[in-house]
Design brief:
About 1% of the residues have low confidence. It is built from 24 helices and 24 strands. The chain is 36% helix and 20% strand. It binds 2-(butylsulfanyl)adenosine (IVH). The site of 2-(butylsulfanyl)adenosine has 14 residues, from strand 3, strand 8 and strand 11.
């Protein structure tokens, strides 16, 4: 029995540690699968031996007691909101007011403004004892049981925490989780939530915490309320809270003056589209507690903090019609034609509807009044329908059945959202897509051939499949010309192949014959065969014959090759036309087996070293650098963690990354340093 108790204790401690590493430090040391495995093991033991289960066990956070009615409780201090600002001038005015009241130019802390709903967590002797919603600011609902289901909110703190304090923050839902949840709601015939904020708020107010646990909520904390003598600044309090296991957002940054604040805002205004959650602005706070006291409050808001709201990018307009576009991969995208509407200074006439699932989810119909969003350079998209304005007798929108480009039937795999044209070899956008993929940098790297050249050679009948590249002669292409019209500006241009370009094309094609097998394989454009998979296939099977004759089991025995990839490879090589292409390429001298010569000298110079490449570089492209790192035995990673050895920093590297690297004491090197290393 003691043995079982020990096992439960160890598993509990281990899982808590992993939760902390995953959610708070963003430095997981085990995979999600391994985590789930450990969690299941603990769960099994707890069911058999509930007497040994900890009250704050990681298993508990996926369900718990039922809270019938929420009890309204008074906040120890009113839960204030912030004054909003929308322009640079507003912020400069705020800075002037602050400077006047403080008598100096203060340091600010900039934080993202999370688009969720406010929560106040009370910890006593390191244990989470209460979670109150904002309510009317004076008193709120006790939603402790529901809040306990959020994995990133620790039930028990670690480290050197004060005896009693409150910490306030925002509960929210990640975009992906929100989309998944809405998909499920639609399937069940329920009305989808309009945005992640509503769904997070709706979720926390659910009566059953087991239901809450099924909806993945998250929480960032941003306001310590307790003995202020412990810290001299807001930033210090957040750092301490982080060390107790509480989740503080990584973007949080000290700015020395209002100009730095504006840089922070500009950065996140464009970068926010890459976040997994929504942020609707930036909160600027005076860092020093002493100055906060001196500056004080108005009746409603602190005078030492302000919220800057990003411009909203949503507009309302009418859906006129829907076109279906076939992309280079054969995926069919429904595109909405809209009544022109101005969003952030540009007129939007078209928006993506993505796929049939989205059409069904939104139940969008011709004639509907729709909400359109536009963020940065992302194509505008329809995010909702105003059902109250729906015309009577509107009809459900049907997805087309055949390819609008070539007439072939469309197919849809169960686990994919997109419809695809089934005739990859005879559908013009797909043919051009394959040709373009073949010459691309990561495949044959023929940089003298771009989209316009391919378009021209295809129109002249010189290119029908990838093997035709090696049949092109200098005389065939010299002097070829084509009229191009810019879709947006309407500008008309003529391109023509003069001696130099024609020569570059021919020599580019000739040089590409030295490309390694794995890249040739990738260049064939077989569905699901990306760079990594083609490397795996090439190094496992060594030559094309073995891949052609490989059966399902041979393929799936290779690391990371699953059902879809195996089926795709088998189907591709079954096609006679494709085998002819391979034969033709082979007769032109392309590599269809692994050469020992593919390995380069000095390969091991970066063996086992982990790199994060960030920013813009002058000598190489970012992909070029990453490729070189791998060639020399190093590894690339997208995010900085304690396991990172080097951060290769180019220009305009994100401040959050830089700060994280500095905090973790990771070596930050320049492009020049890197060249010296290899
Ligand atoms: S500080 C006295 N920081 O936005 C300080 N609020 O209108 C009060 N919010 O009520 C709040 N992100 O619900 C603060 N990083 C952040 C925030 C944040 C989101 C919410 C919060 C607040 C409202 C301000």
């Amino acid at each position: 029995m003691q043995e079982i108790k020990n096992k439960i204790d160890t598993l509990t401690a281990e899982l808590k540690e992993h939760n902390y590493r995953y959610y708070v430090l963003a430095e997981p040391v085990i995979s999600d699968r391994e985590f789930d495995f450990l969690l299941k093991e603990l769960e099994k033991l707890e069911i058999q031996f509930p007497e040994y289960a900890h009250s704050d066990s990681p298993v508990k956070v996926v369900g718990g007691a039922i809270t019938k009615n929420f009890i309204n409780k008074k906040h120890i201090r009113p839960m204030l909101s912030l004054a909003n600002t929308y322009t640079e001038q507003d912020l400069r005015d705020f800075d002037e007011r602050v400077k006047k009241l403080a008598g100096i130019s203060p340091q600010y802390v900039c934080e993202l403004k999370f688009d969720g709903f406010a929560i106040g967590l009370t910890y006593k002797k390191g244990k989470l004892t209460q979670a109150l919603t904002r309510g009317d600011g004076i008193s709120g609902d006790d939603v402790t049981e529901n809040v306990k289901t959020i994995r990133t909110i620790p039930h028990v703190l670690q480290g050197n925490y004060p005896d009693e304090f409150e910490i306030r923050g925002e509960i929210f839902m990640h975009r992906k989780a929100f989309e998944r949840m809405n998909e499920e709601r639609v399937k069940k015939g329920e009305i989808p939530f309009a945005n992640p904020r509503n769904s997070a708020a709706g979720t926390i107010k659910m009566q059953e915490s087991t239901e809450v646990a099924k909806r993945p909520l998250d929480c960032f904390l941003y306001n310590f309320i307790g003995d202020e003598k412990l810290f001299s600044s807001h930033y210090q309090s957040l750092q301490a809270a982080k060390s107790w296991g509480l989740q503080i957002n990584d973007a949080t940054k000290i700015c020395e003056n209002i100009d730095e604040v504006l840089v922070f805002i500009k950065y996140w205004d464009s970068e926010r589209k890459n976040l997994t959650f929504e942020t609707d602005g930036v909160v600027v706070k005076v860092n020093s507690y002493q100055l906060q006291h001196e500056i004080g409050f108005t009746a409603k808001n602190p005078r030492w903090a302000i919220a800057y709201k990003f411009e909203t990018e949503r507009a309302e307009t009418k859906l006129l019609s829907v076109d279906f576009q076939v992309g280079r991969t054969g995926a069919v995208t429904p595109v909405a034609n809209l009544e022109p509407v101005l969003i952030l200074g540009t007129t939007v006439k078209r928006a993506s509807l993505h796929n049939n699932d989205i059409i069904e989810q939104l139940d969008v119909r011709i004639g509907d009044t729709v909400y359109v969003e536009k963020g940065g350079e992302i194509i505008p998209k329809i995010v909702g329908v105003d059902l109250s304005k729906r015309p009577i007798f509107s009809q459900k929108l049907d997805f087309i059945k055949v390819c609008p480009e070539c007439g072939a039937t469309l197919v849809k795999q169960e686990d994919e959202a997109a419809h695809y044209c089934s005739d990859e070899d005879n559908c013009p956008p797909q043919i051009k897509g394959k040709l373009l993929h073949f010459v691309s940098r990561k495949a044959m790297n023929i940089d003298s051939i771009g989209e316009e050249t391919i378009e021209m050679l295809w129109e002249k009948g010189l290119l029908n499949d990838i093997s035709d590249f090696y049949k092109i002669k200098y005389e065939d292409i010299l002097g070829l010309s084509k009229k191009t019209v810019n879709e947006i500006s309407g500008e008309v241009r003529f391109i023509s192949l003069k001696e130099k370009s024609a020569h570059n094309i021919i020599s580019g094609i000739e040089n590409s014959k030295n490309t390694s097998f794995e890249k040739v394989l990738y260049g064939l454009g077989i569905r699901y065969i990306g760079e990594t998979v083609s490397k795996k296939l090439a190094s496992h099977f060594k030559n094309i014959e073995k891949i052609i004759s490989a059966e399902y089991d041979d393929l799936t025995s290779v690391d990371e090759i699953g059902e879809s990839i195996a089926n795709s490879v088998i189907a591709w090589f079954k096609n006679e036309k494709h085998l002819k292409i391979i034969e033709s390429l082979k007769s032109n001298g392309l590599n269809f087996e692994i050469n020992e010569g593919d390995k380069i000298v000095g390969e091991n110079k970066l063996n086992g070293k982990s790199f994060v490449v960030s920013g813009v570089f002058s000598k190489f492209s970012r992909d070029g650098i990453k490729e070189t790192i791998e060639k020399f035995g190093g590894k690339n990673s997208g995010s900085i963690s304690s396991k990172t050895d080097y951060v290769l920093a180019g220009e305009n590297m994100g401040p959050a990354k830089l700060e994280k690297a500095q905090k973790l004491g990771i070596k930050i090197i320049s492009e020049e340093d890197f060249l010296k290393m290899i």
